[in-house]
Amino acid sequence: ICRMRLSAPRLAAAARPGQFLIVRADEKGERIPLTISDYDASERTVTIVTQKIGASSADIIAYEPGECFADVVGPLGLPSEFMEFTPEKLGTMRYIFIAGGVGTAPVYPQAKWLHAHGAKVDVIIGAKTKDLLIYKAEMESVSDNVFICTDDGSEGFHGMVTALLEKLVSEGHVYDRAVAIGPMIMMKFTTLTCKKLGLPVTVSLNTLMVDGTGMCGACRVSVGGKTRFACVEGPEFDGYEVDFDEAMRRQGQYKAEEAEANEKHVCKIGRGK
After folding, report:
1. 257 close to 50: Cβ distance less than 8 angstroms
2. Residue 227: pLDDT above 60?
3. How many angstroms separate the CA atoms of 270 and 156, rounded?
4. DSSP 8-state secondary structure symbol assigned to residue 79
5. How far is residue 20's CA from residue 232's CA, in Å, rounded to a whole number?
6. Would you list the DSSP string of 25-59?
7. What is the pTM of this model?
8. How far is CA 172 from CA 122, 149, 169, 175, in A?
9. Integer CA distances (angstroms), 101 to 1, 129, 248, in order
10. Cβ atoms within 10 A of the Cβ of 170, count?
11. CB crowding 106-136: b at 16 or more within 10 Å, else e
12. 3-state DSSP call for residue 255?
């Protein structure tokens, strides 16, 4: 898992929580959508977090300080809905973020913005094991409470994020809204848990996107029985209305091609060094 800070002055000035950007490693590279993990207009930078999974992510994280991507496009997508709330409303709200794996990174700018504007913020950070936990210290600086959860029990609560969410509510924690960002399967079961608890939940469908402009159709998803495009109408949607089974089928349709590309991949980044 690699965190990169990019010099992108115009993007940094325009970015808002919930939005994403697209990176191309080189002129022949694949377009990779990545949710913005932080932005600083004064420093003129944006931050991205990438996990090495396939050939394209391997090319991205192979870059060294001082090198340049072929291009970075953004900010894209719609900002988080709370950006439209009044200061009075924000001051009365309490959010719970459920962050899974690298989905923890895009939770950070949302929690940071809400905390700075008077809302109460709790965060659950979930990972398979403690070695895969990220953004713990950063999240503690912008949250009222941070709860750690690992599948293997190596740190914090032993179990799934959904079980920890139910435990917190049963202990008396009261929330107005949940936001879940992470693997699609995690967001599906978090949504089901939130529905059982009567807790509204927003999810991010960033992982479905390809071209980021609505042209390719790869990010089509059924929301409330209607076809929506995650890249131009999202990436955030009401979790109750998302057809997660359809979304997961769409997400997995190129697994064979991805495996073949990964097997043949030879990284060309930094070859002159």
Report:
1. no
2. yes
3. 39
4. P
5. 11
6. SSTTPPPEEEE--EEETTTTEEEEEE---SHHHHH
7. 0.86
8. 13, 19, 5, 10
9. 10, 10, 17
10. 9
11. bbbbbbbbbbeeebbbbbbbbbeeeebbbbe
12. helix
pLDDT score of 263: 56
Contact of 9 with 44, CB cutoff 8 Å: yes
Residues pairing with 35 in the sheet: 20
**Strands 94-100 vs 71-76: parallel, antiparallel or unpaired:** unpaired
Percent of the chain with pLDDT over 90: 66
Alpha carbon distance 147, 111 (integer Å): 14
Q: How far apart are CA 174 and CA 199, in angstroms?
A: 9
Q: Which two tokens stand for residue 103?
A: 């989905």
- Could you tell me the two tokens for 165? 């969410």
Residue 137 — φ and ψ, nearest 5°?
A: -65, -40
20, 206 Cβ separation under 8 angstroms:
yes
Residue 177 C-beta-side C-alpha neighbours within 13 Å: 19
Tokens coding 89: 């409303």
CB 208 within 8 A of CB 183: no
